[in-house]
Amino acid sequence: MPIKRAPELQPISREHHRALLVAHRIVHVLEGRAFAGPAVGFPELLDEMSEFHESHFLPHAREEETRLGPGLNALGPDGAAEFDRLRSEHASLERLMDGACDQDRPDDERRNALRTYGQLLETHVRYEERELFQMIEERFAPELLADIGAALAEYEAGRDPSCRMA
Fold this sequence. Notes:
77% helix, mainly alpha
């Protein structure tokens, strides 16, 4: 069942739907199972996922860290711990994609890095939607949430519509 999300967080929440589809596509294709999109080999899948990472994930992660970090840190140690987790998972995803794209590594290592990227991406999105955003909705002051919502709406308006799914 879909989670009812505060309107202020919906711009980044909408992008999570696409990220979940990407995560599932990676795992299914690498396991040789059918999934949405054309059948592709590893090089084509890696190109597709690298494009997603650069064009969609990295700007999304920067926006989350910029907009949510100060409010999380202001909540005290538990909020700061959540912000640390957010940044740590973003950094791990970046390292995994770098590893998958590293042509000096053996193909099995590159495939494993991409598979792990897909698995972590799914886990990360579910964490944000089920835990982090819930905390933000419950504990951020209404004024702060409104300011974040305005900034995220501006961010979304400037994004390629393919980054989100309503």
